[in-house]
Recover the amino acids of this structure.
C-alpha cells in the first residue's frame, strides 16, 4: 500500500532545520519595510548626516568624523537588528500563533532559537556590508582588530537579543513594537552608541555601563584603535547574562 | 464497530481532566481513536474539544488522567512524537508577510520525507495564491494552507481542529475528499467539528462531547440508530404544563423518548408511524395543549445531541 499520503514521517536533520529557519526569518526581516528602514536606511542616514553635520558645524572629535561615526553606526545597526527587530518580530510571532505552529513541527525550541540567532547574523552581515561600503565611499580608513570587531558583534548581539526576547515575552505585540522603538530612539540619542562616551561629559560614567555604550565603545576600540576592549566586551557579556536570566524566567513561547 | 483497545489505539485518552482557573474544561474524558480511521469529536463551542486536541498534541500537560498518542506520552515523548503527527490549528500559525507557498515549503524542509508541495497545493486549490502573503489570503485559503501544513510531513496521524470552518461548500468537499484519501492511505485523522453533516458524512467513529464529558460514542449509524427511529418535534403556542415530558412518554408507551427542548417545544424519539403521530395529537387534546407545529424527521446527530443535552449543537 503506497498512496500519495502513506505515512513516512521523520524530522529533517537539525542543522538543515536550523538553516531553513534562519533563512526564512532573515528573508521576512528584510522584506518588511519598517524593519529594513531600521536595519539599513536609518543607520546610513545617521552615518552620512553625522559626517557632513560635524564637518559643517565644525564639531571637533579626536579623529576624522567618518572614522568615529562608521563604527558607531555599525553598533547602531547591530542594536537595531538584535534588539528592536527581534523583539518586534518575536512579539508578532507569538501573537499570530507562528511559534505555536512551529511548536508542533519537528523543529525543537532550541532549533528555533538557533534559527533566530542565525537570522540575526545573516541580516547583520548584510548591514555591515552596506554600511561599510557607504563608509568607504565617504573616505573611511579603519585600523581593524578583526577579533575585537567579531567579539563586539557576537557579544553585542547576545546582549541585545536576550533583552529583546525578554521585552517581547512580557509585553503584548503592539506594546513590544512601541517599547522596542522607543528604547532604540533613546539609546540612539543618549546611549553612547553612535557618539563616543567622551561626548557625554560627566554622564559618560553612566552610559559606559549601558549595553549601547559598551557596544559602541567596543566597536570604536576595534575599528579606530585596532584594539580589543575587554572591559566593554565584559559589560556586554554581563548584560547578556541579565537578559538571558530574565528571559528564561518570564518568556512563554505562546 | 467496537472501540479499538487502548494498547493499539492511535489515540487513547483516559480520565482526562483540564481546568482553566476555576473553570473545568475537560471533566474526566475517556475516548479512543482506532488506527486508520477518521474520528470526529463533535460538540458545541466550549465543550472542551480544542483543549482535548491540544493535550494530544503535547501543548498542554494533563492535569488529571492520561493521554497516549501512538503509544507515546505527548509531553514526555514530545520530540519522538512530533514528527509523526500533523497538526492543523484552529487559526493563524503563519507570519503575516509570508507567502503561502513559502510557508508550505518552509514547513516541508523541517521534515525528512515531505510531500511534493506543488502537488499538495494544487490538491488543496492553493495553486492560484501561492505568492499571496498570508494576511491577504481569504479565511478559507488560510484554512486550506493550515491543512496543507498538517499533511506535508507525511504524518501517521493528523489532528485537525475545525478543518472546514469558514470554507465555501466547494472547499469543504475538497477537504472531505482529501481526508477520505488519507484514510484510504492508512493515515488516522482526528477532527473536531460542530457540523453534524461533516461528522456524519466523514467519520467512521464519532465521540460527542459536552461540557468536557463524553456523552455518546459510536458510528454515525449506531448513533442515529440506523434510521429505524425518527423524531417528532412538537412546538406549542403556550408553555407546556408541568410534567409534560413524562405524561407524553407514558401516553406513547415503550420505545419512545421525550426530551424537553425549551418551554415551547418537545422532541419525541421513537417509531415514526401514524400511530405515534395520532397519540401525540390525542395527548395534546387531553392536556389542552395547542400544537403550533408537528414536524416529523429522520433522527440525525443534531437530534441525538439535543436529546442528550437538551441544547442545540450549532453555536
Amino acid at each position: 500500500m503506497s498512496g500519495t499520503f502513506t505515512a513516512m514521517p521523520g524530522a529533517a536533520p537539525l542543522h538543515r532545520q536550523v538553516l531553513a529557519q534562519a533563512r526564512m526569518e532573515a528573508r521576512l526581516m528584510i522584506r518588511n519595510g519598517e524593519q529594513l528602514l531600521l536595519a539599513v536606511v536609518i543607520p546610513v542616514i545617521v552615518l552620512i548626516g553625522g559626517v557632513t553635520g560635524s564637518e559643517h558645524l565644525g564639531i571637533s572629535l579626536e579623529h576624522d568624523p567618518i572614522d568615529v561615526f562608521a563604527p558607531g553606526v555599525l553598533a547602531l545597526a547591530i542594536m537595531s537588528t538584535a534588539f528592536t527587530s527581534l523583539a518586534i518580530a518575536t512579539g508578532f510571532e507569538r501573537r499570530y500563533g507562528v511559534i505555536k505552529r512551529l511548536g508542533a513541527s519537528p523543529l525543537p525550541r532550541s532549533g528555533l532559537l538557533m534559527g533566530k540567532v542565525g537570522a540575526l547574523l545573516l541580516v547583520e552581515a548584510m548591514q555591515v556590508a552596506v554600511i561599510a561600503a557607504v563608509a568607504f565611499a565617504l573616505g573611511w580608513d579603519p585600523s581593524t582588530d578583526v577579533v575585537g570587531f567579531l567579539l563586539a558583534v557576537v557579544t553585542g548581539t547576545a546582549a541585545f537579543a536576550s533583552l529583546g526576547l525578554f521585552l517581547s515575552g512580557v509585553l503584548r505585540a503592539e506594546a513590544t513594537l512601541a517599547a522596542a522603538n522607543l528604547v532604540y530612539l533613546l539609546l540612539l540619542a543618549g546611549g553612547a552608541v553612535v557618539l563616543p562616551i567622551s561626548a557625554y561629559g560627566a554622564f559618560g560614567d553612566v552610559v559606559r555601563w549601558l549595553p549601547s555604550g559598551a557596544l559602541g565603545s567596543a566597536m570604536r576600540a576595534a575599528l579606530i584603535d585596532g584594539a580589543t576592549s575587554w572591559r566593554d566586551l565584559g559589560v556586554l557579556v554581563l548584560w547578556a547574562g541579565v537578559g538571558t536570566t530574565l528571559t528564561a524566567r518570564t518568556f512563554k513561547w505562546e | 464497530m467496537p472501540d479499538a483497545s487502548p494498547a493499539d489505539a492511535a489515540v487513547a485518552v483516559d480520565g482526562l481532566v483540564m481546568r482553566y482557573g476555576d473553570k473545568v474544561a475537560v471533566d474526566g474524558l475517556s475516548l479512543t481513536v482506532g488506527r486508520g480511521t477518521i474520528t470526529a469529536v463533535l460538540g458545541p463551542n466550549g465543550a472542551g474539544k480544542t483543549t482535548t486536541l491540544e493535550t494530544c498534541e503535547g501543548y498542554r500537560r494533563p492535569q488529571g488522567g492520561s493521554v497516549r498518542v501512538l503509544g507515546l506520552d505527548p509531553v514526555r515523548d514530545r520530540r519522538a512524537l512530533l514528527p509523526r503527527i500533523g497538526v492543523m490549528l484552529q487559526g493563524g500559525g503563519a507570519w503575516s508577510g509570508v507567502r503561502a507557498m513559502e510557508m508550505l515549503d518552509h514547513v516541508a524542509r523541517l521534515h525528512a520525507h515531505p510531500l511534493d508541495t506543488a502537488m499538495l497545493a494544487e490538491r488543496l486549490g492553493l495553486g492560484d495564491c501561492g505568492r499571496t502573503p498570508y494576511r491577504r489570503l481569504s479565511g478559507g485559503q488560510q484554512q486550506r494552507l493550515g491543512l496543507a501544513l498538517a499533511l506535508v510531513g507525511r504524518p501517521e496521524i493528523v489532528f485537525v481542529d475545525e478543518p472546514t470552518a469558514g470554507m465555501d461548500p466547494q472547499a469543504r468537499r475538497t477537504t472531505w475528499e482529501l481526508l477520505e484519501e488519507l484514510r484510504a492511505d492508512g493515515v488516522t485523522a482526528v477532527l473536531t467539528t460542530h457540523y453534524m453533516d461533516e461528522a456524519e458524512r466523514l467519520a467512521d467513529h464519532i465521540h460527542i462531547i459536552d461540557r468536557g464529558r463524553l456523552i455518546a460514542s459510536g458510528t454515525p449509524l449506531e448513533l442515529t440508530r440506523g434510521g429505524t427511529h425518527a423524531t417528532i418535534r412538537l412546538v406549542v403556542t403556550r408553555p407546556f404544563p408541568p410534567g409534560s415530558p413524562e405524561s407524553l412518554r407514558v401516553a406513547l408507551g415503550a420505545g419512545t423518548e421525550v426530551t424537553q427542548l425549551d418551554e415551547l417545544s418537545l422532541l419525541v424519539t421513537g417509531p415514526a408511524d401514524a400511530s405515534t403521530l395520532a397519540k401525540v395529537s390525542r395527548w395534546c387534546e387531553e392536556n389542552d395543549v395547542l400544537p403550533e407545529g408537528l414536524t416529523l424527521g429522520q433522527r440525525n446527530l443534531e437530534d441525538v445531541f439535543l436529546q442528550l443535552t437538551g441544547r442545540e449543537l450549532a453555536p
Notes: Chain A has a mean pLDDT of 92. Residues 65-95 of chain A form the longest helix (31 residues).
